[in-house]
Amino acid sequence: MLTGNFISLGDRLRHQLEGAIAHLNSPHRVSLKGTRGGLPVGYRCAIALKLNPRQALAIAEDLATCLDASDYRVSVTPPGLLDISIRDPLLAHWLQTWADGTVRQGTSRCCGQEEHEFVDIPFVVQYAHARCQSLLRLGEREGWIGLENAGIVTPRPLPWLTHEGHLRLSHEAEARLIAHCVTVADAIAFTPEPDSLKLLMGLSAAFEEFYRDCPPAEHSPVRLGLLSVTGALLYWLLEIGLGVEALSQM
């Protein structure tokens, strides 16, 4: 499962694939192209074609066997592409990692952070972060969830999965927001200097769409957990990416 070393699903997958080809001493790094817009979260990888175009199909099939079938659904497409989708239990574990709030612990724009240029943050971005926090506090008052220090949501883990092991979703807007959160985390992990403001604008827009289609009165612990994940990503982009205080109330 995920560890603190992998803040994104794509980074975890890339690390596993690079481990699988380490014995080849290849100069090529594994790159992934993510699918966008909904679930299941998926990636396409063309590393087999870079390693050996003539043997790409066989190499891709070997790589497919290196990935845990309980975490990934893998198919090999000629001439040697790996199409990989994330299974719900692994996605739920990733969501829980962000919902645990550990990204907020020990993180401050005043503690060991490098100086950032002044950035004028649009109102909608700070509103999205503050709204996530206020909805979590509402959920605590209503008894749907508990909140511990550093924004940790309880129960832990949240009931992301049904008894059959599928994500507990009831609206397409939930799936779209989850997929967007995955994309943002991948951008943070894959890009040395991610465009934090652009990512913030996209994520705040995805939050607004979710909030419009999934009103507070219908918030379940899972939906509130998703708000915690969204808020944690907004927090990271504001505080760590831009060095700007993430407002909890407006």
- Provide the CATH topology of the largest domain: Isoleucyl-tRNA Synthetase, Domain 1
The CATH class assignment of the largest domain is Mainly Alpha
**Backbone shape:** globular
Q: Which strand order do you get reading across the main beta sheet?
A: 1-2-4-3
- Structural class based on helices, strands and sheet pairing: alpha+beta
Distance between the ends = 37 Å
Q: If helices are DSSP runs of H or I spanning 4 or more residues, what is the number of helices?
A: 8
Given as residue ranges, the uncertain stretches (5+ residues, pLDDT < 50) are 106-113
Largest sheet: 4 strands, antiparallel
What's the total count of β strands?
Answer: 6
Task: Please state the average pLDDT score.
Answer: 89
% residues in beta strands: 5-15%
Along the chain, the helix and strand elements come as HEEHHEEHHEEHHH
Secondary structure: helix percent: 40-55%
Number of domains: 2
CATH architecture of the largest domain: Orthogonal Bundle
The gyration radius over C-alpha positions equals 19 Å
